[in-house]
Fold this sequence. Notes:
Layout: H1 3-31, H2 34-50, H3 52-70, H4 74-101, H5 103-109, H6 116-140, H7 144-167, H8 171-180, H9 182-191, H10 195-199, H11 208-239, H12 242-255, H13 257-260, H14 263-278, H15 284-307, H16 309-317, H17 328-351, H18 357-373, H19 378-412, H20 414-418
Helix pairs in contact: 1-7, 1-14, 2-6, 2-8, 2-11, 2-12, 3-4, 3-6, 3-11, 3-14, 4-6, 5-6, 6-8, 6-9, 7-8, 7-9, 11-12, 11-17, 11-18, 12-17, 14-15, 14-17, 15-17, 17-19, 18-19
Amino acid sequence: MSLLKNGSVLFLTSMAGNFCNYLFQFFMSRNLELTDYGALNAALSITSILGIPAGTVMLVVARYASTFNAMGEGPRVTRLYRSSLLFTFGAGLLVFSALAFASAPLAGYLQLEDGVPIIIAGFGLFLTFAMTVNMGMLQGLQKFWHFGAGVWAGAASKLAMGVVFVLLGFGLNGAVAAAALPGLLVIAMTFLPLSRILRQRPGGKRITMDIATYGVPVLMSSLAFTAMLNIDILTVKHWASPEEAGLYSAAAVLGKTILYLPAAFVTALFPMLADSHARNRDMRKVLGRGLLVSFVISSSGVLGLVLFPELSITVLFGSRFSEAAPLLKYYGVAMMSMALVSVTISYNLARGKTSFIYSLLAGCAAHALLLNIFTGSLVAAVAILAAVNVSVAAYNLITVLRGRKAESALRTTPEGALS
């Protein structure tokens, strides 16, 4: 299947999921206190950062499942699946325990009344670890309809539970629980198309060291990328008033649509790149299409936020969030930059290249430093976010395109043609 066809399948299902996610935010912004709404998104940011190891497992599983499948090594796919499930169960339990232990100081830092929302979010992380193994297998084997169905089911159940829990009076804790519990449904759904693989006899040599060697740079890149998406929310929640943090959270939620809109095509892109690399095929056309699709989709979204900022924020969150409208154009540019960076990350990781990680770490350091120096202004915070992200994107695009040009030149030489 082509990138356009694979991406379209995921785009349709992910858009359905994103619609549910934004109905969730729409409902919460109108039914939670402004301070609780800011606290909800701060708690979700914590789970995004601490869930990075789970995202790492997903990428590693997807890459090796794609590679083994391309080489016709079914027993190794089964071994990979079983080993990954055992690993993530233990890792998820460890992360949940650590987060529960640290819930009180984290609640203090984020100006929460108690640590209950943190503990609930930790349980959601435990479920996420198991869920991402299944999602990684589906992605690597290019079972995109099943993958997309899992994404949609998780978002739809989060919306349904969120409405019920908040209307029953559970407030912030109910909203966080609604984001945590859908993992149970997604795990059950995604086991079904993979049950045949799980029942097969595992075989082939163990690849523990290979996975560990590959997993470390994936973990570092996931950590840095996710931190670049969430450091601003946590920092603003720390130094701003609860009301200002709520406004900034609304701008962040809406602005990140620019990143999520082309994400379906990036999800489809990674296993296709890994498959091409395993078969020693030319990856340049797939890369070019991925960059083009991501740019067209994300830039269209930015244009909408630039032209209709107040309409965009009030339709989703209501008139009390209209003060966040001036932030949207900067946030949109920041997220368009990260959408392009995500394509270059997929390209590099599919080839086993890791030098790009230094640029992401530099971006994280710049965010952490500048956002803690220039405090007190939401506009300054989002302008810093945009400036740093554009710089990181420019560096990665230049590096990838130079490497692509060099690869093209190598292929045109007699030596390259024979290799």
